[in-house]
Amino acid sequence: MADDEAGLIRGIRAAVAAGDPEPGVAAFVEAWNEVRWPALPTKLRARLVADAGRLADETEAVAGRRIPATAWATITAPATVLYGDRSPPLAGRMAERLAAWLPRATARRLPGLGHMGPALAAEAMASAIEDALAGR
């Protein structure tokens, strides 16, 4: 796991243990997204803070897992990997790499969206999913 990501996870865990998860979650969100923490809708911030422990657990589980490249070739279902053009460069590279590893996948870069696209632009994401399902 990258040192930066491990540090963000430790920050969330420390903030949860201190009884104030918001600073840890805010630092994590701002590191991975194009949106500053105060700019997120209040309801979304509250949901992320309430799920701080789970966020740390899931991020740590994914960040620490290495899947052999040969395993991806066994997934033969068609797939479209969506990512926003405002996502951090690392997220875009990860999306492109995943699409290259999957035999029947394409990557689609969505204009004007960032890493929080599913939470902040649900309609645009739904439209992109509908387009992928329709083969557009």
Largest sheet properties: 2 strands, parallel
Q: Total number of helical segments? A: 8
Low-confidence parts, pLDDT < 50 over ≥5 residues?
none
Total DSSP E strands: 2
Run of helices and strands = HHHHHEHEHH
Number of domains: 2
* Fraction of residues in β-strands: 5-15%
Name the average pLDDT: 90
Helix content: 55-70%
Compute the gyration radius: what is it?
Answer: 16 Å
Which term fits the overall shape? Answer: globular
Distance between the termini: 36 Å
Strand order of the largest sheet: 1-2
Structural class: mainly alpha
Keyword list:
two-stranded parallel ribbon; mainly alpha; 8 helices; 2 strands; 136 residues; globular
